[in-house]
Amino acid sequence: MISAIWDNLKGLYSLLVGMCITARYFFAPRKTVHYPRKVVDPEDLAAYRGPLELTRGKDDESRTRCISCQMCAKGCPGNCITVVKGAEGKLPSTWLYDFSLCCLCGACVEVCPAAAIDFSHRLYLVTTTREELVMDLLADLKSRAAAGPLKPEAGAPEALEAGGGAAAAAALAEAVKSSKAAAGAAGSAVRKEG
Amino acid sequence: MELSNISVTGLIVLIVACLLVIALMVVNAIVMVYAERKGAGFIQRRPGPYEVGPWGILQPVVDSMKLLGKQIFVPSNVDFFLFFAAPVLAFFPVLILFLPIPFGPVLTALKVPDGIVLILAFAGFGLLANLLAGYASNNKYGILGAGRAVSQGVAYEIPMILALLAVVFQTGSMNLSEIAEAQGRWPWSWNIACQPLAFFIYLVTLVAETNRAPFDLPEGESELTAGFHTEYSGMGFALFFLAEYANMLLVSFVCATFFLGGYKGPFLDGFWWTFIKAYAVMCFIVWIRWTFPRVRFDQLLNINWKWLLPLSILNLWVTAVVLKIVGP
Amino acid sequence: MSNFSFLNPFGVLDEPGTYMGDFYSHNFAKKAAPGNVILNLGPQHPSTHGVLRVLTELYGEFVMRAEPVLGYLHRSHEKMAEHKTAYGFLPNMGRVDYLNAIGWNWAYTAACEQLAGIVVPERAEYLRVISAELNRISSHLVWWGAFVLDLGAFTPILYAFDDREDLCDILQRVTGSRLTMNYFRFGGVGEDGDERFFSLIREFIPRMRERLKMYKGLVTDNVILRRRLEGIGPMDADMCLRYGATGPILRAAGVGHDVRKSVPYGIYDRFDFEIPSYKDCDNFGRYWVRMEEIEQSMRIVEQAVEQIPQGKRIMDKAPKPAWKIPAGESVFSVEGARGEISVHVISDGGKSPYRVKLRAPGFSNLSLFAEASRGTILADAIAILGSLDLVIPEIDR
Amino acid sequence: MTTTDAWRDAFKEAGALAVTRPDPKKSGLALSAHMPAASLAPAAEKLKAEGFTLLFITTADFSEGFLVTYVFDSFTEHRRMALRVLVKDKSKPELPSIAHVYQGAEWHERESYDFYGVVFTGNPNLVPILLPGDDRIPPPHLKAPDAIASIRTLGFLGEPEWAVDGWELAPEPPKAAAPPAPKAEASGKPPEAGAAGKAAEAKPADGGKEEGK
Known about the structure:
The structure holds 4 protein chains of 4 kinds.
Chain A: H1 2-27, H2 42-45, E1 52-54, H3 71-75, E2 81-85, E3 92-98, H4 107-111, E4 117-119, E5 134-136, H5 137-146, H6 159-162, H7 165-183, H8 187-193
Antiparallel strand pairs in A: 1-4, 2-3, 3-5
Chain C: H1 23-30, E1 37-41, E2 53-59, E3 62-69, H2 77-81, H3 90-96, H4 101-116, H5 122-150, H6 156-175, E4 184-185, E5 188-189, H7 195-220, H8 223-229, H9 237-243, H10 248-252, H11 259-262, H12 283-307, E6 328-335, E7 340-347, E8 355-359, H13 361-367, H14 369-372, E9 376-377, H15 378-387, H16 392-396
Antiparallel strand pairs in C: 1-2, 2-3, 3-9, 4-5, 6-7, 7-8
Chain D: H1 4-13, E1 18-20, H2 24-27, E2 31-34, H3 40-49, E3 52-61, E4 66-74, E5 81-87, E6 94-96, H4 105-116, E7 119-121, H5 151-154, E8 160-163, H6 207-212
Parallel strand pairs in D: 2-5, 6-7
Antiparallel strand pairs in D: 1-2, 1-8, 3-4, 4-5
C-alpha cells in the first residue's frame, strides 16, 4: 500500500515537472514567421527550388544558352518541357515549361550539356488558372534581362507576376497550341494532350 | 435579500441580477475563448489568434458569428425533440447556479440559505444534456461519448460534494455568503490553509466535472472524433461550447468562494477579488489542458473510486474529529 | 416517412437499423457476433494518420475484432515503374513514404547500382549516411508528436515540428525539397553539401540533445503517459516473426536486428553506434526504442560530419537519364525509420525496368494490428495503432 | 542449418525442382529454390522452424507464366533466400496459401490476388486489399502482350546448381545465354492496348482508364 502511495506521489511530481516545462515555454519568444509582415531571409532561399528559368547568356544577357538538344525534354519524368528548334543556329524558337506537371526532380538541370536551365528562387508564385502555370521561359528570360543585371534575389515576387494578368495568359495559351502542333514531340506529348 | 419575504423591489433586483448573470456568462465565454486560444498558442510558441482586430481581440466574436451562420445539419433517424433539447438543456440551467454566488459583500443575487445544495443539484443538468446529446444523435461515437460522460459525471460528483462538505462543516453554514464572510483577509486565513486536501480533491473533480483535459474522455478527439457532440454543427455546437465555459466559470467561482476567501482580499474587499481568484483557477485549468495526455477511461474511474473517494471521506472524518475536540 | 423528407432522399433510410456500410463492412459483419457494434474508424478519422480505415467489432468499449482496410491512397508506384525510365522513377521514391524519403531513395538506387556493379565515391557515401540519419530523426520526431497527440496531449507535436523545421532547412540545402526528397542519383548524390550545410548540422545536434532532455521531462516521465503505455499491446518476437514486422517493433520485442548492423550496406560499418532493444515488448518499449534511435542517429551524423573526406559527389561518367538497368534481378534492403525497406528489381535491359516490387515495412507492421488489438479497450487500440508508426502512403504504395 | 549448402540439401528433400545460386554481389540473394506448388507449405514450415521470417511475396508476369517469388530472411544470421513457384496456367492461376504458417503472408497473397489475379486457396480472407472490393477491375499489373519477356531469354535466374532433369526454366543454351539484344524493342511508350493482358478475354482495352489508376 505504501509503495502505491509513493508511486502516486512520484507521479504527481512528474506532472509538476511537465507543467514547469510548459510554463517556461509560455514565456519563451514565438517562432512563427508572419508571412505578409516578415519574409524568409534570402540566405535560406539559396537552395529553394522554384519554377525553372533559363540562365542568362554569357555575353548577351537576354540570349539563352540552350542549344535545343531535347535532352531535358526526353529526360523529364513529367514531360513538362517542350523545346522547338528555331531558324537561326541552335537557338530554340519556343521554350515552354508546364510547372503544373513538374515534380522539381532536377533531372533537366543536371542533364543539360549547356547549363542553360536552373531553378529560380521564386517562393511567392501564385496563379489562379492552370494555363498560367504554362510558362514561356524565353519571354521570362528577356523580361529578367531587361530588368537589369543579376542582383541578389530578395525572394520578392519576380517580374513575371507583375506582367501577369489575363492578356499574357491568353498569349501563352496560343503559343502552347501552335508549338505543340509544330513540335510533334514523341508519344509522351500525345499522352499529355489526351 | 432573504428568500422568504420577497417584495416587489426584491423581484426587480432579482430580474436585474438574472440579466447581469446572462451578460456575465456570454462575456465570459468570449473572454475565455480568447484567453484559451492565446494561452495555448503561447505555450506552443505560436502567437495564437492574430489577424482579426488588434492582437486578435475580435476572434471570438467572429467565431460566434461563423457558428451562427453555419447550417444546422440533422442526421437521419434522429429524435428531433431530444436532439434540439440537449444544447438548450446544457446552457440555460447554469444561469440559476450563479444566483447564490457572493460576488461581493452586497453584490449577491439571492442569499439562498442552503446555496451549495442548489448548485450541486443543478450541476446534474449538464450531465443530463451530454447524455441526451450523445443518445439522440444516432451516431456510434455519440453513444460511446454519452456513456462515458454519464459514468464520469456520476463518479466525480461524490468526492466534490464531500470536499465541499468538509468546508461547510468548518464554517457551520451552507449559505455561500456566510462561508465567504467567515474567511479572513490574508491567504493563511482562507479555507485553503486549513483544508488543503479538500482543495486538492476539489481541484481534480472540477477538472473532471467540466470534461476538461486530462479527463476529457466524453469528447476525446483522437478516439471518439468528438464524443457526444459529434453530430452538432452551427448553433448546437456553439451552445455546447458556451455551456462548457459557463460550467468552468461556475466551478471556478465556487472554488474561489469556498477555498480562496471569496471577496476578501489583503487590501480592500470587493467583487474584483472574486473575479481575480476565479480567473486564476480558470487559467490553471487551461494550463493543465495543454500539458497532459488524456487518461484512459478505466484509469479515470480508478482514480475516483480508489483514491479520491477514500481521501475525501478521510478528510471529512478528520475535520469532524478536529471540530469536535477544538470546537468551531 | 419522417416529415423532414428532404433529409431522407430516395427513402433509403426509412426503416431504422438497416445496416448501410459498403462491401468491406458487409464482408466484415458476416463474421460478427450478434449484439456487437461494427464501428468504422473510418478513412477520415483524426487518429489514423492519413487515409487508413480500421473496421472494429466493439463489445461495449472492448475491441473484439479489427481489420484494417487499405487502398484509399493506392497510386500504384510499381506500375509506374514499368512505364518510366530507371532515372525517371527516382522522384517517385520520394513520394512513396514522404517521411523517410531518403531511405527509399537509397533502397532503389542501391538495388540498381548493385545490379550494374556501380561503385559510389567516398564523399557521396558519407553524404548518403548523413542525409539518411537526419531523415530518420525527422521521421521519428513526426511519429513522436503524432503518437502523443493520439494519447491526448496537444502541445508536444508543436515542439516536435519546431525541431523538425531545422532538420528540413538542413536537408533542403542539399536535396532541394523538405518532404519528398529526390537526392540520390545512380552512382552518387545529386548535390554536394556546402560549408553552411555542415555548420547548420554542427549547431543542430547539441540543441537537439537539450530538447531531448525536455521531451523526457515533459512526456516520457509523465505518469499519465506511462500508465497509458506500459503493458499494453504486447508483440513478442514470435509474433514479429510470423507477421514479418521489422524495425522498432522488432527491436522492442527484444531482437536487436538492424539492417545497418547485420548487413552493413554503404559505409555503416565505419561508425560505432548501438542498436537499442527493449526487454518487454509493449507500447512503451516501442516508444523508448525510437527515442533511443534518435540519440544513436545523432551519434552517427556527428561521426560522419567529422570524417567526411573531400572528393567528388558522384562517380564520373555517371548514368544519364536515358540509362538502362542491365538485365538481371536484384533485391536490396535498407533500414528505414519504420523497418526494413526492400526493393526487388527485375530488369530485361530495356528502357524501363521489367518489374519493381517495393516492400514497405508499414505493410507488414500493420498486418499484426488485428492480432495485437484483440480484446483491448478502444483507447488502447488507438495507442497500439500509433505505436506502429504507420505512414499510409507507404502501406498503400 | 548454418550454411547455404545445408539449406540447398534441405530444399532438395522438400521436393525442389531446381536450386540456383545467383551471384550475391549482384542479386542480394544467397539461394533461390524452385518449388512445385505442393511442396511450398512444408518448405515454409521448415524455414519458420529455423527462425526465418517472410519478407515479401512478389509476382511477375512472364511468357512462361506467373513467377511467384517468396523472399525469406533470418533476423539472427542474415541469409536472404527466395522460393520461386511458376504458375503456368494464366487464365486460372491457383496456388496453395501459406497464411496458416506465416500469418503475415495473408496480406501479401491478397496483394498478388489484386494485381495478378492469382487465387491463393486457403487464404482466410481472400478479398482485394489495395483495389476496390466491390467492382473488380481486371488485374492491372499484367504486361502488355508485346512487352512480355520470357524467363529463359532473360536468364536472370542463373545457372542451376542442381536441377531435376527437364526443368523448363533453365536458361537457354549457352550460345544464347548472353541475353540477346532485347528482341522486340520493349515498348517504353505506354501500351495503347492497355494492360488487359491475355488473362482477361479479348475485351476492348480501355488504355486510358488503366493509365489513370
